[in-house]
Specification:
The structure is a single chain. This protein has helices at residues 3-11, 15-23, 26-37, 40-56, 67-85, 127-139, 142-153, 158-165, 169-195. It has two domains: 3-85, Orthogonal Bundle (Rna Polymerase Sigma Factor, Chain: A), CATH 1.10.1740; 94-195, Orthogonal Bundle (Arc Repressor Mutant, subunit A), CATH 1.10.10. It is built from nine helices and no strands. It has 200 residues and is an all-alpha fold.
C-alpha cells in the first residue's frame, strides 16, 4: 500500500494506516527533536506531541508534500514552542558566532583561523569531532540550528526547508550559510582550545 492510499485510510479513521505512516518517520522525527533540544525526555515529548497534533489534523493534510515532510513541519513547531517555553530561543546574537563581520568576508576564507570541515557527514566517523560538532550545533540559536539539522542531518533540499520554515528560498539559503559559518568558527575555536594550536 503506497503513501497516498495509507493517507486516505488514515483520514477515514483507520488508526493502523496512521500508525504505519508515522512509524516510517518516527526515528527521524525523534533524532531531529533530540538535536533541537539536547534532551531525551524533551525529544520524546515532542515526538508524542507531534503525533497527537498529526492525528488531530490528519484531515488537513492535502498531499502537497510527503507525509514525512508534513510531520517535520509539525515537529519543528512543537520544538520551537518547547524551546520558547524554556526561554532558550535567544541564547546569543548570531554575530557572536559568525567568524567575520562584513558581507564581503562571508565569501572569503579566514586565513588566520579556518577549520574547513566541508560536509559534516565526512567527519562524523570521528567520535571526538562528533562531540564537538554536536556541542556547537546545540549552542546555535534555534533559527540557525533547525535549518542546519534539516539540511545536513535530514538532507532536505533548500526548497523543502524554505517551505517548512515558511521563508523564501534566498532567505533560507542565507540562513544555512550563516549556520555553516557559525559552526565552522565554533568548531575551529573548540579544536584550538583543546589542542592549544590553530587549525588550518
Amino acid at each position: 500500500m503506497n503513501e497516498r492510499e495509507l493517507v486516505t485510510k488514515a483520514q477515514a479513521g483507520d488508526f493502523q494506516a496512521f500508525a504505519t505512516l508515522v512509524n516510517a518517520s518516527k526515528g527521524r522525527i525523534y533524532a531531529l527533536a533530540l538535536k533541537m533540544t539536547a534532551n531525551e525526555q524533551d525529544a520524546e515529548d515532542i515526538v508524542q506531541e507531534t503525533f497527537l497534533k498529526a492525528i488531530d489534523n490528519i484531515e488537513q493534510f492535502r498531499g502537497e508534500s510527503s507525509f514525512g515532510t508534513w510531520l517535520y513541519s509539525i515537529a519543528l513547531n512543537q520544538a520551537r514552542a518547547h524551546l520558547a517555553k524554556q526561554k532558550q530561543t535567544d541564547l546569543k546574537p548570531i554575530e557572536d558566532y559568525l567568524p567575520t563581520k562584513s558581507a564581503d568576508d562571508l565569501h572569503r576564507p579566514d586565513t588566520h583561523r579556518l577549520f574547513d570541515w566541508k560536509d559534516p557527514h565526512q567527519q562524523l566517523e570521528d567520535q571526538e569531532l562528533k562531540e564537538i560538532i554536536d556541542t556547537a550545533v546545540a549552542e546555535l540559536p534555534v533559527t540557525y540550528r533547525e535549518v542546519f539539522l534539516l539540511r545536513y542531518y535530514e538532507e532536505l533540499s533548500i526548497k523543502e526547508i524554505a517551505k517548512l520554515i515558511k521563508e523564501s528560498v534566498a532567505s533560507t539559503k542565507s540562513r544555512v550559510l550563516r549556520a555553516r559559518l557559525a559552526l565552522r568558527d565554533a568548531i575551529s575555536k573548540a579544536l584550538e582550545d583543546r589542542y592549544g594550536t590553530q587549525v588550518s
